[in-house]
């Protein structure tokens, strides 16, 4: 049994990791300081103001145009190289007129993009258009290489200034040095003492502790009972978690990030999970719902990427969606070849439980997060609640039923609140603990 | 002190010289154990797996399996790529449609979940008059029949539709050049669009004939009506307008002329203001109508004809000679006089297969100017002509038919002269069978063309003239099927789909009404006018009927069973397991014999030790056709001298082995006459029936079915005819309901569900039983399990016969018992039903007792009571002790003795992927070892509540429904919230006729019954 020196090795590892933390924390701090320097001032090219142009572009054009990819309309980067400014003014102000006039270039674009006329923007002045042109003329930003990627990952702290860890680390170091110093001092003193002929009292040979323990039968009994109880507790705990999939976080065929959708973009849960309002199922959104937005969003913004997941990674996921739904990004049309996505189901209630989302979402007005957790922060969706009966019952006992403004509850509320002498009624008082309400 | 006794084990031991003793001293056994027999196998000796290894493997695999069991399976969820707008997963959609399969018809709503039809409901929109019967309710399961014809077949080999089209076209062209006859043999076509297509087809094929063939013919009635009114149709009677109904051999509550008369009939049967209709029934077999009648007289069909003439004599004032017994005659005269007195409030119907008799029916109803009898809005659902079918058989025999197209018929099975048809079929150059299954006919045809189920098809139906109903698909075709009409269109060269065709035709019918509205409603009522009668010599008809001769020997009266009908859905396990309302036998047909005849022939029925019913076998011979080993049921009420037998059984093709039960009685349906001269002889052996009710009579226990007469009901106080049970408390007689072990809860808050069952309105039709099956995923257990009383029906309809002539006499006899010996003998006698008994039906499901005996004995609290009155059953808690079932006084709890799903031992619909598509996703599929019972459709009541909550409104007064109450077209079952005083059920609960089943037990049930009132 290679168990000897276990403690020492643990201590050593602790020390090692501590020192490592200290070192890397310092490095990451240094890095952050360097980061702002990497940002470059945008280069202004033409007469327009690119910054204003960006604003205008995002407000007016981005719904149908992208800088570097085809969307409803053509990619706009470097559009000034393809058409002269005067033409562009006309086109933007009233494209239909230009097409009707038989302008060859205009007709060509009109034909190419499925004869979808571009919205007229008479409100944009030529100056505005110049600004937009300036913005579209900016060179494509090269994707910034992640500087010292690995270090960034390892760096635990991103806080500004000196982190707590560093302080603690320094203190620990001081302590260790103190201990070492004491040890050394002790040694020196002993040496001095022996050199001076002073006798240090030898320790009495004591009974080894384990023998003493065995001799004390009461202690043996108590510890046996304690051990039995403790192991019983853990065995019970183990058995009770069989079949409970809290924190179940399977890998999905498409890496769908709720953080991006519900968090960053604040899309309402029920926009995609619309069935939750009327049905027992919350419904996994069908792919046509995804395409409501993703028809135009074929790639994520630079800022969406995280150290863990790069932009390329996310773009690949969107491409997976396109493949599944059969969307050809280049021709902006459906091919008709679909591959339904086989999601891994996370929340699985047993068949003998009836649960209805609409009862909780629409009638009770409960936030989705109450049961599903802070989904808007989840990069990967997981099961937040244990979904055990005890968990359900607990909530039914504590939660007051939302009755205001619902004519259904008027009579029963009046009767029950009189009966129980309370103003608010819990789901349990409404009969929410009866077996048959969920099991049939 | 030691004993010197010598103990010995055998006598041998005493013999010192015995070699055996010596051998035993050294060896355990005298002889060498022949281990070589099992160890001599060389292969075993050289095997590398030793016993120890084997144990290791066992240990390892057990441990591995145990460990693996700790991890949950990975479930996949696959959403739509493009979700249809109207489908929300988890929410049911309803589509109005119409069914007409050549036999059954109804205006229905189809409940679909995630695009799968899972249940049939009645369409209750105004104008929709035909509710679904048990077979229509079960038809949704036939959609998922795994033995459906999946691909077109030419000469038994899979083919494509284009090949089929090409082959039919070639054959038609060939027929044209050779001037061969092209025949279209169909069941009755009630679809205007199909009729138009056929007319078009006729115009394109010169030598064409359309033959309409009903497996169960109404030809004589059609002929009679046609000769008087010039239209080949049937009268659609409205029994709600009659106060006196006389039926001569017509089972109008069953399948007579299509059936569907329950609702109108039941309306008049509920006593209101001291009045209810009176019903006389003259019949030979015991039928649902006979069971419901106030006065039932069992007669042979010969006597029925005489009775009909007698009634004609009295009502019309004619004087045709009749040959009737004096006793019978006085009954007939009584009925006839009352009929005449009722005048326009009276109606007479007859099921006699005789044109002249049917003419008399028209004459009598016209003479009465009966309100129930109207020639406006005639029934179009039977058109078949016996003569034309006979002509076709002759043509086929002569080889004159070149191409035969068949749709919706199975003549090889349903024709009496099946052999003639089969040999004729061989002479036909090309025969095409458009069939849903590869049935007896399709398998013998050149081309077997799969057609979709009605739930996958478009169409229009005119059930009654002037009411135009639409049929719409509720699921995409499951198999490679093509509608018969689509093929006709392609043969006619009509462009477009059949949907377009129906839609364009509809325009001329529905006028300005929108197509979408009609499709949504399911029907459009255009109305129709009464027909004018032509001159007919009724006296001659009466003379002809009176002069008819009795058949020699016994009469065989063929009928259709409530469960099976004409036998189209023989592969439907719900219908096979459905117990016949009268005999309570499932999974069989049989010959019904009267008690007197049974004794004469030597036929018996007996209950054997395991509780199953055994019956003798008989050999049934009609005109040389012999059916061997037909099981016998001794049927109370069967007219002496007659036997009954149901068609629709004995199918052989396209059905699972378990469903191949019964004998084919179509073989005896000679000349489409349901009455035949028959010889019944006893044969050896005993048949094991799957009968769900052994007890025939109530033995005078008048508190189970309370019954009274209209006279008593009208003249006396409720305590006389709805007696409250009394018990002795402190030596005083008090009402049983006032004494209780338990405290009562306050049930005035919230909903409190009650189910009302009116025994007057219940006709025993069984639609509720099948609806319950479909709604609650009730498993099918099979014949042998039903025989062991392990049927799973949550809702049963008990049928009781009276032991004396009436139930009232039963009660009287029981109360007059004095002394033990008299009680033994009297009760023994009372176990047997009378020869012509009164009959009562009583639907029994869980009574949802407020003080439930089952709840108190459950050791694990798996069954408990809800505040809304429902007795809950938590399957996941149940450990299967069955204490609850033992303690239930109503015997309504059902135990899952086996796993009935995904188990090849129970190869019914729950054992295949297709059949499981019918399961209701809102209701648990129970596993083995679990008790189950009626939940009062808690999934439906909860959904109704949730819908109201979501819409922020109170529940409407009659919004609550259960599967059974929604299916009940006669209005016998009414469900609702008694705390809502405006609801029907709250008013019914206050009725004086209300009583609880076994009230003296003190269970305080939430199901209550209404005293049956007979109008005699």
TrEMBL record, chain A:
User: Which Pfam families would you find in this protein's record?
Assistant: Cytochrom_C (PF00034), Cytochrom_CIII (PF02085)
User: From the UniProt record, which GO molecular function terms apply?
Assistant: electron transfer activity; heme binding; metal ion binding
Q: Which InterPro entries match?
A: Cyt_c-like_dom, Cyt_c-like_dom_sf, Cyt_c_III_dom, Multihaem_cyt_sf
The Cytochrome c domain is annotated at 48-140
User: Where is the secretion signal located?
Assistant: 1-30
Q: What are the entry keywords?
A: Electron transport, Heme, Iron, Membrane, Metal-binding, Signal, Transmembrane, Transmembrane helix, Transport
Q: What is this protein called?
A: C-type cytochrome
Species source reads Flavobacterium agrisoli
Tell me the classification of the organism that encodes this protein: Bacteria, Pseudomonadati, Bacteroidota, Flavobacteriia, Flavobacteriales
UniProtKB/TrEMBL annotation, chain B:
InterPro entries cross-referenced by the UniProt entry: 4Fe4S_Fe-S-bd, TAT_var_transloc_signal_dom
Checking SUPFAM superfamilies in the record gives: 4Fe-4S ferredoxins, Formate dehydrogenase/DMSO reductase, domains 1-3
Lineage, top-rank taxon, reads: Bacteria
Q: Which Gene3D superfamilies match?
A: 3.30.70.20, 3.40.50.740, Formate dehydrogenase/DMSO reductase
The residues covered by the 4Fe-4S ferredoxin-type domain are: 753-783, 837-868, 869-898
Task: Supply the PANTHER family for this chain.
Answer: GLUTAMATE SYNTHASE [NADPH] SMALL CHAIN, GLUTAMATE SYNTHASE [NADPH] SMALL CHAIN-RELATED
Q: What is the name of this protein?
A: TAT-variant-translocated molybdopterin oxidoreductase
Native organism is Flavobacterium agrisoli
